[in-house]
Design goal:
Blueprint lengths: L2 H7 L1 H24 L18 H44 L1 H12 L6 H26 L32 H4 L8 H6 L3 H8 L10 E2 H11 L5 H13 L4 E2 L10 E3 L2 H13 L15 E4 L15 E4 L4 E3 L13 E3 L8 H6 L6 E4 L15 E3 L3 E2 L16 E3 L21 E3 L21 E6 L22 E6 L21 E6 L4 E3 L2 E3 L19 E7 L15 E7 L14 E5 L6 E2 H7 L8 E4 L4 E2 L8
Parallel strand pairs: 4-5, 5-7, 6-8, 7-9, 8-10, 9-11, 11-12, 12-13, 13-14, 14-15, 15-18, 18-19, 19-20, 20-22, 21-23
Antiparallel strand pairs: 1-3, 2-3, 16-17
Helix pairs in contact: 2-3, 4-5, 9-10
C-alpha cells in the first residue's frame, strides 16, 4: 500500500470512519435513556404487548447505572480520539519527509537522454532520505524498520545501472508512473496535468478539510477564472477529477447526477502545499497583499489590503466582512468575487442554527465601486444581509457571467443596471423573499441559460418584467418561478411557458394557496392563482412544484415527456386516475392530504423504479406489502 493510501486508512481513518460514528451512536443511546417513551418507529408494526409492573420497575432500576456506564464509555472513547489525533500528527510529519525523496526521484526521471551519473547521484540522495525516515519511524513507534530477518526491508539490493543505449527502457512520461494520486505522488500527478485542469484542481485547496463542495460552486469559480469556457466543459473536468480519484463523489440520491464532492484529507494537504509553493493561492487572510488569489478566513473583520493583481477573492469563513475604501480600486484583473456563503444548508439546518448561514457586510455603499472591476466574471453575494438594492454601477460589469444573489434576505430591488449584463448566463434570485417584482428588460439578457427565483409581478404595471418577456431567452435551460403573495398575473400569462423551447427544467413555487370553503376549492378574490391556465415547455425533462395549490393534479396540465417529477407541500389530494405517466424519477414530500397507495402509484407510473422513488412525510400514503419498495 502506498504512503498516501496507508495514511488515509490508519489514524485519521479510524477517527473519522469509526470513532466519530460510534460517538454519534452513544449520543443516540443517551437520548433513548433520557426518554421514558420508546423511539418512534419508521415502519408500522403491531403494538408490543403491555409491560408488566415487574419489568417496568427493573427498567427504572437499570436506567441510572446504564447512564453512568454510558458516560464512562464516552470518556474513554474521547480519550482514544485524542490518541489517534496525536498518532496522525506523527504520521503527518513522517509523510512530509517523503517530499525531498519524491523530488529527487522526479529529477532523476526528467533527464533526457538518461544520465547514469546524475541518476546515481539522485539515488544517493534518496537513500539518505529513506534512512532519515526510518530513523523517525523508530523514534515515534519504537520498532525496527526491517523484515524480521535482520535485513532492512526498505533497502533494495544494488542493481547495475545500464548505460544509455544498452537496452534499458527509461520512462519518459511521469504519467506512466504516477497515473493516480492513490500512488502517493500527488505533486507529480498535478504537475503532469494540463494547465486548465491543474488550475481546477488547485482551487480545491481553498476549502476546509472534510468540506462538502457543490459541483456548481466549482464550475462557477472555474468559469470565472477562465479555466473552462463553459459549464459543459467544467462538468467534464469535474468528472475527470472523480475518475482520477482527486475528489470523492457524493451520493447521487434518486438520479445518477453527482452534485457534490469531498477531498480526502491527505490529498488536500498535498494540494495546499502545492498551491502555496506555486503561489497559486494564499490561505492566510492576514497575508494577501501580494496574493493572486486570496481567502477570507474568520478572525477580525478589518478590511485587508489586496494586491492590485488579485484575480480571485473567496470568502471561506468570514462572518462579518468590512468593505474598505480601496477594496475594489484598481482591481482590473479581478475575475472572481465570492463574498457570500459557499456552504449549502438545508432548511432544517437554517432553522436550527440560522447564524451559520448568515453573513453580514458593512460598507455596503462601497459596492458601487465594483464598476472598476471591468473583468469580473463571477460575483456571489449569497446569504449576505444589509444589501437592500443593487447599485446601478453593476451594469458596467459587462464581462459578468455568473451572478449569485440567493438568500439575500434584505434585497428589495434589483434595479435597471442588471439588465445591461448582456454576457450573463447564470442568475440566482432564490430565497430573496422581499423581492416582489423583476425589472423590465431581463429579456435583453439573451445569453441567460439559468434563471432562478423569477418573481411573477402585478400584471397592471408596465415597468416590470413578465413571463412573456422571457420568451426572448432562446438559450434558457432552467427556470425557477415564484408566485408570491403580491402576484396578480393575467389569466393566460403562464401559457407563455410553452414558447420556451430550450427549457429542460422548471420549478414553480406558490406563495398563496387556494382557500377552501364548504368543501370546494376556490381562489381568493384577489389572487386567481388556482384558476389560471398553464402550459409547459415542449422539451421539459424535470418539473419541480412547491406548495401546489390544487387538490387534483388532473385539474392542472399533464406533464407529458417529463422524466423527473418533484412535488413538495401544498393541497394535493390525488394524482388523478389516468395512467401512462412518463416520469422515471418521482419525489413526493410533505403532502399531508395526498390519498394514494402503492398499487395505484405503480399503475400511474409504469416506468418508475423503487430506487428512483421517494415518499417522505406523506402520512396518508399506503405503502405496498414489501417494505422498502418506495
Amino acid at each position: 500500500m502506498s504512503v498516501l493510501a496507508q495514511g488515509d486508512a490508519t489514524s485519521r481513518g479510524v477517527e473519522e470512519d469509526i470513532l466519530v460514528p460510534l460517538l454519534a451512536r452513544l449520543t443516540n443511546i443517551s437520548t433513548l435513556l433520557d426518554s421514558a417513551a420508546p423511539p418512534p418507529a419508521t415502519i408500522r408494526r403491531s403494538p408490543p404487548p403491555p409491560a408488566t409492573a415487574a419489568s417496568a420497575a427493573g427498567d427504572a432500576t437499570l436506567r441510572a447505572p446504564a447512564r453512568a456506564l454510558l458516560e464512562k464509555v464516552r470518556r474513554e472513547m474521547v480519550q482514544l480520539e485524542g490518541v489517534f489525533r496525536r498518532i496522525d500528527d506523527a504520521e503527518r510529519r513522517i509523510r512530509y519527509s517523503f517530499d525531498p525523496v519524491e523530488q529527487h526521484l522526479d529529477d532523476a526521471l526528467q533527464h533526457e537522454p538518461p544520465d547514469a551519473e546524475r541518476i546515481y547521484a539522485e539515488l544517493l540522495a534518496v537513500d539518505a532520505g529513506i534512512g532519515a525516515i526510518k530513523t523517525s519511524i523508530r523514534e515515534v513507534y519504537n520498532f525496527p524498520c526491517d523484515d524480521g530477518a535482520g535485513g532492512e526491508s526498505f533497502t533494495a539490493p544494488p542493481t547495475q545501472l545500464s548505460a544509455p543505449g544498452a537496452g534499458t527502457v527509461m520512462p519518459t512520461k511521469k504519467g506512466e508512473i504516477h497515473r493516480s494520486p492513490e500512488m502517493g505522488n500527488v505533486r507529480s500527478y498535478v504537475g503532469s496535468l494540463k494547465e486548465h485542469l491543474r488550475g481546477c484542481v488547485l482551487c480545491l485547496a481553498a476549502f476546509p478539510e472534510g468540506a462538502v463542495i457543490k459541483k456548481r460552486l466549482l464550475l462557477h469559480w472555474w468559469i470565472g477564472e477562465g479555466f473552462v469556457r463553459s459549464a459543459d466543459e467544467g462538468k467534464s473536468c469535474f468528472h475527470e477529477l472523480i475518475e482520477n480519484k482527486l475528489v470523492v463523489a457524493g451520493p447521487t440520491a434518486l438520479c445518477d447526477t453527482v452534485h457534490w464532492c469531498t477531498v480526502r484529507p491527505l490529498i488536500r494537504e498535498n494540494l495546499v502545499r502545492i498551491a502555496r509553493h506555486k503561489g497559486f493561492l494564499e490561505l492566510n487572510a492576514g497575508d494577501v497583499a501580494f496574493a493572486r488569489r486570496a481567502c477570507l478566513r474568520g478572525g477580525k473583520a478589518q478590511p485587508p489590503e489586496f494586491s492590485a493583481a488579485v484575480r480571485a477573492i473567496y470568502n471561506i469563513g468570514q462572518k462579518y466582512v468590512e468593505l474598505g475604501e480601496r477594496w475594489f480600486a484598481g482591481k482590473k484583473d479581478l475575475r472572481v468575487l465570492q463574498l457570500g456563503q459557499w456552504r449549502e444548508f438545508s432548511t432544517r439546518e437554517q432553522i436550527a442554527n440560522p447564524m451559520d448561514s448568515h453573513i453580514e457586510i458593512s460598507g455596503v455603499e462601497r459596492l458601487r465601486d465594483m464598476a472598476s472591476c471591468k473583468n469580473l466574471r463571477y460575483l456571489s453575494f449569497r446569504g449576505i444581509s444589509r444589501i437592500k438594492s443593487l447599485p446601478d454601477s453593476i451594469g458596467k460589469l459587462r464581462e459578468l457571467v455568473v451572478l449569485d444573489l440567493r438568500a439575500c434576505h434584505n434585497l428589495e430591488e434589483l434595479g435597471q443596471g442588471i439588465t445591461k449584463l448582456d454576457r450573463l448566463e447564470y442568475l440566482d434570485l432564490s430565497e430573496c423573499h422581499l423581492l416582489v417584482s423583476m425589472p423590465r428588460g431581463l429579456g435583453q439578457l439573451t445569453r441567460l441559460e439559468i434563471l432562478k427565483g423569477f418573481v411573477v409581478a402585478n400584471s397592471n404595471s408596465r415597468d416590470l418584467c413578465h413571463l412573456n418577456e422571457l420568451t426572448k431567452l432562446e438559450k434558457l435551460r432552467k427556470l425557477g418561478i415564484v408566485v408570491g403573495k403580491m402576484a396578480v398575473p393575467t389569466e393566460d400569462e403562464f401559457l407563455k411557458l410553452a414558447e420556451l423551447k430550450a427549457l429542460e427544467s422548471l420549478k414553480i413555487s406558490w406563495g398563496v394557496l387556494a382557500s377552501v370553503k364548504n368543501g370546494n376549492t376556490k381562489a381568493s378574490p384577489r389572487h386567481s392563482v388556482a384558476t389560471m391556465k398553464y402550459a409547459l415547455p415542449p422539451n421539459l425533462k424535470k418539473l419541480d412544484l412547491h406548495c401546489f395549490p390544487l387538490a387534483d393534479f388532473a385539474q392542472w396540465v399533464r406533464p407529458t415527456g417529463v422524466k423527473k417529477l418533484y412535488i413538495r407541500g401544498g393541497r394535493l389530494t390525488t394524482l388523478g386516475y389516468e395512467e401512462g405517466w412518463e416520469a422515471e424519477v418521482l419525489r413526493l414530500r410533505f403532502l399531508s392530504d395526498l390519498q394514494c397507495d402503492h398499487g395505484r402509484l405503480r399503475r400511474l407510473f409504469r416506468k418508475l423504479k423503487p430506487e428512483n422513488t421517494e415518499i417522505h412525510e406523506c402520512p396518508n400514503f399506503v405503502p405496498g406489502n414489501v417494505v422498502g419498495d418506495l
